[in-house]
Amino acid sequence: MPTAPVRKPWTLTALARKIRTELADACATAGLPVPRLIIEPGRAVVGPAGIALYRVLSVKRTGSRTYVAVDGGMSDNPRPALYGVRYAPRLIGRHSAEAPAPVTVVGRHCEADDIVASDARLPADIRPGDLLAVPVAGAHHLSMASGYNLVGRPPVAAVRDGIARLLVRRESLEDIRGRDVGL
Predict the structure, then answer these.
(1) Residue of 2, 34, 75, 109 with fewest CB within 10 Å of its CB?
(2) Are 142 and 116 in contact (CB under 8 A)?
(3) Lowest mean pLDDT: which of 2-6, 79-83, 109-113?
(4) Which has the higher per-residue pLDDT, 167 or 140?
């Protein structure tokens, strides 16, 4: 699969200046007054605030490559498969003294594009049961989630001052079955 080029994200100020310049130029060309433009930053605010959590299901070492399978993937976050978003997962919940090594973090769906992160640097002793945090997964994570392979959509929790509060419960198999009206 060809990977999308890694682009440096625009700062809000640089993006606003670029949009304003292009809008002013287009309006001048068309002989129109420049309108007042208001932009809701959405992803710029919510994206960095969201963290996806995955549990490691298995670790497979084949020669020089290590694959870390997690309990999610393209059903809860299709962005890497759809347009090459690159994530940098981190081990959380335990300290490791092992040096980081490159791994491919894969989802649970056995699809070629079900890759959460390629060439991620995780401790060499990564093992089943470990938790991985994937920062900057907020803005479209749940809204793009699907019931692919009958895997329910993930829960959403808010955390403030160390206290978690469930906002959206995990979708259960009963939720999925409940939509089936039969033949």
Answers:
(1) 2
(2) no
(3) 2-6
(4) 167
Nearest one of 129, 57, 115, 118 to 88, comparing CA atoms: 118
Model confidence pLDDT, tens digit, residues 108-125: 998 889 999 999 999 999
Q: 164 with 101, same domain?
A: yes
CB atoms within 10 A of CB 102: 13
Query: Is residue 123 a contact partner of residue 100, using CB atoms and an 8 Å limit?
Result: yes
| pLDDT one-digit tens code per residue, 43-53 | 777 778 889 99
Q: Are 140 and 52 contacting, i.e. CB atoms less than 8 angstroms apart?
A: no
Give a yes or no: residue 183 inside a domain.
no
Domain count, the chain: 2
Q: 25 and 102 share a domain?
A: no
According to the model, what pLDDT value does residue 4 have?
63
Task: State pTM to two decimals.
Answer: 0.76
Is residue 110 flagged as an active site residue?
yes
- Residue from 111, 66, 68 nearest 89 by CA: 68
Please pick, among 28, 110, 167, 173, the residue that the annotation labels catalytic.
Answer: 110
**31 lies in the same domain as 81:** no
